[in-house]
Predict the 3D structure of the following.
Amino acid sequence: MKSEEKLQVALLRSLLKNKKTVIAFVLSVALVSIVFSGPFFLAPLYKSEVIFYPPNTSSNKTLIQYDVRFGSEKEIDQHIQVLKSNLVRDSVIKKFNLIAHYGIDTTKTVWRYYLNKEYNEKIAIERTRYNALSVTVLDTDPVLAATIANTIVEITDAIKATILRKNLSAALSNLEKDYSNKVKEFDVFAANINRIVKDNYIPNLNLKNESFVERMKKQIDLIRELTNNGSADFDLKKQYNYEAMLAQLAELQSSYEQASSNLNTNFPTCYIISPAQVNYQKDSPNRLLIVALTTVLAGLFCIVWMLFSIQLKQVKHALES
């Protein structure tokens, strides 16, 4: 008989001889796993998920031109960064007092590390296969899990709106400065032309004057008439410079009006297609899986132990002989 066959026979005999002990050990392990996988030792976790599309924050003109209903790839990535930012995390932690809820001991020097670790383990932010975004929350309280998931989307909208409003305010301020500088330059040029034509054909400009473009077009017609009548000191070069400067002013005012309009309107929020709902069906731990896995491992442990015992006896027998 081969050594492998002898080993298999010896293992089978050992199992039959110690079957009561093996069964008792496996059942004991199964019983222990049943007890320790219960809610008293492992609190059940409930899952809630909200699915949404990030908004498109482009101007109304861009939306009409390209018919973009949801955020672009760039805006999706930006929205994910905001969702995962410290601003959102700290706001959620403060709003729901997650330090106490997660049982974080703030007397330890590394308490913030454990707080962030717990937060990242309980809250997941992912992109779906259809380019939507999902926020999944696991918590021992099913109602709180749904509330946190929906609130994260709301906080992200608020933070993103604040950032956009701040950027638009800065852009608007820069446009005002550029426009004021251009108006001063235009006034100097207009004064020279007025001195030549002996009349106020070109009035001073006002940033808030919505009809100045139409007024300037009339002035162009007057200047062209002067040019055609042979004004000695007014040539086509001055007319060209005037028209180019007027076009720049018109473009600056258009940009200013667009930025001002965007600043004074409400920013779009996320398009929630599946809000988080309270789910009373626990997601984890899977008690049946834990019990089954530990029972199988207990049986394998018995087999390995018996194989080790048989091999040890064979080695001792060989040494004695």
User: Anything to note?
Assistant: The mean pLDDT is 77. The two ends are 20 Å apart (CA to CA). The longest strand covers residues 45-53.
